[in-house]
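Objective 1b: paired records.
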Amino acid sequence: MGLDGQVYDYAELKTKRKNYVDIETAVESGTITTVLVVNVTREQADKFKKYWMMTDKAPPTFNILGGNCSTRASDSFIYSGILSRKIPGLDTPDNLYEQLVDSKAQTTSYTGYVGFKKAASVGDSKAKYYIEYKPYTHTADVNTPNRNSKSSSS
């Protein structure tokens, strides 16, 4: 396909895809999404951010197979030492999600209407965000990336 790659930070998402960062907009637009929180060390987080910033400066070409958003996220997880290998099978969000849930990393999954807010800065701490979350259902499937998946949080 060879489309131009794009990397968005919070500010760009809030402008270009507000329904993925603002919970009220997500509810109004019916945008149901899954966020997988992966607990990492400070060193891993710094390396992940470094890789992402390098990608932001020169986003690679987007291809549906083997060069998509899942591929780029996976590359960041590998660079930072959170994952040790590429996504098994096709590079899809569901396969990356499965790989992260099955890894040694501690994860928490949120599926429903999701938003992010900046947390108040304390001392020397860098700006952080917290998740706002409203599940779209109260069933055992609430932590799956989609209704057809068998993934769950660990």
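Objective 1b, second protein:
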Amino acid sequence: MPGQSQSSNSDSQVVSGESSILSGNNLLCQTMQESDPLTGLNDMCDIDGINNPIPPNQDTAVLEITSILRANCIPYIIPCPQPDGQISVGYEFNGDDEWRSFQPETDSPGGTDHIFIRMDVGANFYIFASGFYYWPWFYPERPNMVGDCDVGERAACVGKMGEQGAHVTVNFHYSRFD
């Protein structure tokens, strides 16, 4: 099952999921609506949101977050943690402070999930991550993050959106209960 997300009615629509084509804001959905090969995905777009696109003079870029599950699980024998963990993101978009929470779900060791968020160029962003206990198999270690942000001591990073966007990888590490 692809990742799960929670989002508001803002134009900074967020889509997450393994091998997801949808990303950014509703302008991509408009392109999808006009493209024959992608018409099957139109149901996933907020077509009403196309009427309220990003203001034309506003510079925005995309934050891409990749989550990776680091657990010694064997699907169908030793189940993988589900979801992989939780990622919370704070940022500014259109002058408003936004917060989103995601629970990526990859179902395989080394599996990846991707989250794309459009935000204002120059805006600060904050990413927090935490794992979950999966009794009787796994307990979480502190997730680590690498990429276009300064990493703090508590599984958190702070960055500033550049004109070319930003990318952060979150590694969810788990150890087995003995």
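Helices lie at 26-33. Confidence is low (pLDDT under 50) at residues 1-53.
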